[in-house]
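Morning. Coffee machine broken again, so started the prediction first thing and wrote up yesterday's gels while waiting. Chain of 142 residues, entered below exactly as on the submission form.
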Amino acid sequence: MHWFAALLLYCPFFCINCQSAAKFPNGLIYTLPVTEQTIFHKILARAIPAAIVTEDDEVLAFKDIHPKAPTHILFIPKHFVASIADVTPETAHIPGMLILKAQKFAAEQGIAGYKLTFHVGKGGGQEVMYLHLHFLSEEKLK
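Came back before lunch.
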């Protein structure tokens, strides 16, 4: 395990409990105490594996481990927001950015038909409290 990932996972006092946003050398921005990090935080830190399909400075996209379609990709921003319900004026660009990244991904993969979905809160089917966009298609990846 990379030293940075180990520090994030095992040091509860790292970055004064990470209460303020901090950007680390790998480009990730953490705003939660380590004890409140989600599985997506751990995937971003490469502390746990994921089938990554695309990544840039703003977004990581990987295959859903419980796919609901032949192609089921999760797009997550590298800046943490818990849910669409938690979007603020400062983070309002993030949902649109995820949609544009998914659109670009579809074009690169030659996928013409797909569905994009945000789940909001537990009542809306959100299982991981980290804003993410579901990309589903009956077409398979190249």
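Confidence is low (pLDDT under 50) at residues 1-23. Going to sketch it on the whiteboard this afternoon.
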